[in-house]
Amino acid sequence: MFNLKAGNGEVILTSETYVAKAAAKDSIASVRANALIDARYDRRVAANGQRYFVLKALNGQVLGTSETYSSAQAMEDGIAAVERDAPNAPLEDLT
């Protein structure tokens, strides 16, 4: 699995768990490619009323899920952080 962190170190997107490291690396590349496409963000409301988003690939595969946010504006700020940080985020391999 991987986490995308904002410039302040806060996790803004978390992937699913992968069996193979190569699959995780492919998904990271897909996050970088899809992060700037607004249509790839599925904005959702959790059962507790908080907002969150899911970033999807062109084929609909979920690439990552955000934390929950207290407002729609906070969620949009989270999306903006992914758009800003994902394309050039450094890769730190902790395996």
Q: Helix count?
A: 2
Low-confidence blocks of residues: none
Strand coverage percent: 15-25%
CATH architecture: Roll
Total individual domains: 1
* CATH class descriptor name: Mainly Beta
SS-based structural class? alpha+beta
Q: What is the H/E string?
A: EEHEEEH
Radius of gyration: 13 Å
- What CATH calls the topology is PH-domain like
| Largest sheet strand order | 3-4-5
Question: Describe it for me?
Answer:
- The protein has 95 residues and is α+β, with helices and mostly antiparallel strands.
- It has one domain (3-87): PH-domain like (Roll).
- Helices cover 29% and strands 23% of the residues.
- The protein is built from 2 helices and 5 strands, in the order ββαβββα.
- The protein has helices at residues 21-34, 72-85; strands spanning 3-5, 11-14, 41-45, 51-56, 62-65.
- The strands form 2 sheets. Strands 3-4-5 form a 3-stranded antiparallel beta sheet, covered by helices on one side. Strands 1-2 form a two-stranded antiparallel sheet.
- The longest helix is centred in the N-terminal third of the chain and has 14 residues, at 21-34.
